[in-house]
Specification:
The protein contains 8 helices and 15 strands. It is of the alpha+beta class. Bound molecules: calcium ion (CA) (2 copies). The site of one calcium ion (CA) has 4 residues, from loops.
Length: 512
């Protein structure tokens, strides 16, 4: 027995060590040479340090517009150097915006062995790529109502991307997410570590950095080493603006890689830091030059308060979204708490049932709480009765509520019917049941009178009267058909009058 225990303890210790090693072994390093971000994203001459762009792409200090919202535009941006590390995490902040309810074509992130075209066929880049594409496809080419869609497509340089089916037969994995026209920039985090590719997505509905959700995770993904990073976008008949605000690359290293790498690259690190400082100096120099050349704008630049102001509409929108975010957080907390309360209630209920069964002398079921704990519960017969009585009261109240709701529903139905009548007074539904009853009574009376008259006519016709005698004795000189016609005319007049009256009343009611 003791040997088994020792084995168990040993196993758990080994597991713990393994987990600890696994989680602690990731070393992260920000790679500025494979990143861009505002401010001063593009330099004064329009270049982006360590990157090259082309096609219809335009870089500004704040973002890179890969493709503007004009028809048939294509553009891309690529790193100058291939990656010198195997595992990485890339965070892309982007905005796809357009005035249309649907947009096109989309944006793509690339990790490929060679830099692609600036005006290629696949979202602005080359087809038959060797490596990975993470595509944000806005337009639904196959009309399956499954776009905007985010997908990863791995290619070995031989496959041609199938636009007609939106790549649905070629994708590695993907998720349906709307990334167009969001209040805040949308974000994607693409992680490739130990041959596992994971894509997280931030839907841009909040400004909270932690609101990433998993789009997909794919294991055993083999990508070629030393690829170039790129971003591209394209428009078609429909067009969106495709703006990338930042691309931040972090290299991921295992423990062994880290120790080996550090020994190896002392010189290289020095060289890199020197290069970085030179770049910083160059930037400072450029800023200084700018100040000298534009003395009027210096005061503004010193303050840089222009960006701090916002219009009323912007403020309102921001406040609405902040409020929504708060509501969302509170609801999430509430949900958690309600779950806890329900769990506790279920526990108490099962315990109560056990106690009740015990006091009634019934055997406690095997699944219930252990009997050893029962006497410690401070619930007596009296409490139990009170609980049952309370329950009964609640049931009665619910029944009353139900009755009340049915009553209200019936009344509202009647009201709706009456409203319908007001809308179309000529319709038969405008006549209320009371009026119909009155009509029926008067019709009955008329019918009775007519029958009486007919009987009298039938019985009162004297046999003595010859058939050729004009049928106009002292009793009545009006024929039966004429009488019926008069009655019918009268009825018609009555009905018309009643309908007119109804309509007037309904119109009067409208103003209450
Ligand atoms: Ca498409
Ligand atoms: Ca589709």
């Amino acid at each position: 027995m003791s040997s088994i225990k020792i084995n168990l303890v040993l196993c758990s210790v080994i597991l713990c060590v393994l987990v600890c090693v696994n989680t602690q072994s990731v070393h992260r390093r920000f790679e500025y040479k494979y990143s861009f971000k505002p401010p001063y994203l593009a330099q004064k001459d329009g270049t982006v340090p360590f990157w090259e762009y082309g096609g219809n792409a335009i870089a500004s200090g704040e973002s890179v517009r890969l493709a503007p919202s004009l028809r048939s535009q294509k553009g891309a941006i690529w790193t100058k150097q291939p990656l010198n590390f195997d595992w990485w995490e890339i965070d892309i902040m982007f905005k796809v915006t357009g005035r249309g309810r649907i947009g096109a074509d989309g944006l793509a992130f690339w990790y490929t062995t060679a830099r692609g075209d600036y005006t290629g066929e696949v979202f602005g880049s080359s087809d038959r790529w060797n490596g990975l594409a993470v595509i944000f496809d806005s337009f639904d080419n196959d009309n399956k109502h499954n776009n905007p869609y985010i997908m990863a497509v791995v290619n070995d340089g031989t496959k041609v991307f199938d636009h007609k089916s939106d790549g649905s037969q070629q994708l590695l994995s993907g998720c349906l997410r709307d990334f167009r026209n969001k209040p805040f920039p949308t974000r994607a985090r693409i992680e490739y570590y130990l041959n596992t590719l994971t894509v997280y997505f931030h839907n841009g509905m909040t400004s909270n950095e932690a609101d990433y959700e998993l789009c997909f995770r794919a294991e055993n993904v083999v990508l070629p080493r030393g690829g170039y990073l790129g971003l591209s976008a394209a428009t078609g008949g429909l067009a969106d603006d495709h703006d990338v605000i930042h691309l931040l690359t972090t290299s991921l290293h295992t423990q062994q890689q880290q120790s080996g790498g550090q020994q190896m690259s002392q010189d290289e690190q020095q060289k890199l830091s020197q290069e970085y400082q030179e770049y910083q100096k160059k930037l400072e120099q450029q800023k200084e030059d700018y100040r000298k050349e534009h003395p009027d704008e210096v005061r503004d630049k010193d303050g840089e308060f222009d960006d701090w102001f916002e219009s009323d509409a912007q403020r309102e929108l921001r406040q609405i979204f902040q409020g929504q975010t708060q509501i969302h957080d509170i609801l999430r907390d509430l949900n958690k708490k309600v779950d806890e309360v329900i769990g506790k209630q279920m526990n108490s209920l099962s315990m109560l049932t056990a106690v009740y069964g015990h006091t009634q002398g019934q055997p406690i079921q095997p699944g219930a709480a252990p009997p050893a704990q029962l006497p410690t519960l401070p619930i007596g017969r009296h409490d139990w009765d009170a609980l049952v009585a309370n329950n009964q009261i609640m049931i009665n109240t619910v029944a009353e509520l139900k009755g009340f709701i049915i009553d209200v529903s019936r009344k509202s139905d009647a009201l709706v019917a009456a409203q319908g009548g007001v809308g179309g007074a000529a319709a038969g539904s405008a006549i209320n049941p009371q009026f119909l009853n009155e009509m029926r009574d008067s019709l009955q009376q008329v019918k009775a009178t007519v029958t009486g008259v007919a009987q009298r006519l039938a019985s009162g016709t004297p046999q003595a009267m010859p058939s050729n005698f004009p049928a106009c004795p002292e009793v009545s000189c009006v024929s039966f058909t004429a009488l019926l016609m008069v009655v019918a005319t009268q009825l018609l007049l009555m009905m018309l009058y009643a309908m007119y009256k109804e309509r007037k009343e309904a119109q009067a009611k409208k103003f209450f």
